[in-house]
Amino acid sequence: MLKLKRFKIMAILLAMMVIFTFTLVGCSGQEKPVSESEKGKSEQANSKYPEGPITVIVSYAAGGGTDVGARILQPFAEKELGTSLVIVNKPGGGGWVGWSELAKAKPDGYTIGFINTPNLMAGYLDPKLKRKENLNSFIPIINQVTDYGAIAVRPDSKFKTIQDVIKYAKENPGKLSVTSTGYGSDDHIAALKLAEAIGSKFEIIHLNGAADSRAQVLGGHVDILFANVGEVTTLHKEGQLRVLAVMSEKRSEFLPDVPTLKEIGYDIVSASARGIAAPAGTPQEIIDFLQDKLEKAIKNPEHIKKMAQQGLAVIPIKGDEYMKLLKKDEADVKKYMGW
Question: Can you give the pTM of this predicted structure?
Fold first, then answer.
């Protein structure tokens, strides 16, 4: 009888051990298989996308080149996407107030944003900032604009030509103030390139965006505006600014009367690429959907026409080519900023 009781006790203990072992396996770090029904629910949810408005983060102030381009694209993109876009300006930190928010946004396709090169790279390559985010924090969707650099002054400035600026800068190192849209931005790097080429220095004033930069120059607080063609074309044509030079391979179709730096002997090219990205982790089917719809909107002839009126050159680039462009800009920032 005693042996029978012991046998029963041992049998119960063995059964409990088996149950406990299976429980541990089930609760381990192994990924739980996704059932066909769960997969179906996920695909069904994505197939309904978008079901509401999409927030578009612009990391610069209203009125700047990125903001203008975003608002021109807005109605064309809304038509293709079948929903409304809510453009939110988040200036500051050389663009990283907005980009940090974009990187941390829920990756569900309802928050996307414009990324600007090389400013984006400067914010995470600068070792002093100790930023955790990098290019892998985003999924590039499609580029909208490549906007070449421009150098401009007030209409009443004593500098009538780019040669006047260069002559004064050479004779007065560090006394000529110039604008920048942030440390390591395309404007900043362009100013460094020109200063190096002429063997002088500029006093570089870092500001919150193109609109702020223009205001500082027009207000007489900064001598020279370093900006982009799309940010100065209208003001140049209206006589509110005088563009002295552009930093492209050849003269801009939007400013045919303005010489390139190359024409006067300085092999300097500078540009900012502005495209749209989503937070890392956004489902591929949503990325594919956004890429397809945004490409159609960007290539819309009416969109291209309206952008041209603002001096903005539409250059859609996607996929591997877009990533290649971003990687090249990343390499340039490392080179010129010493990072």
Answer: 0.74
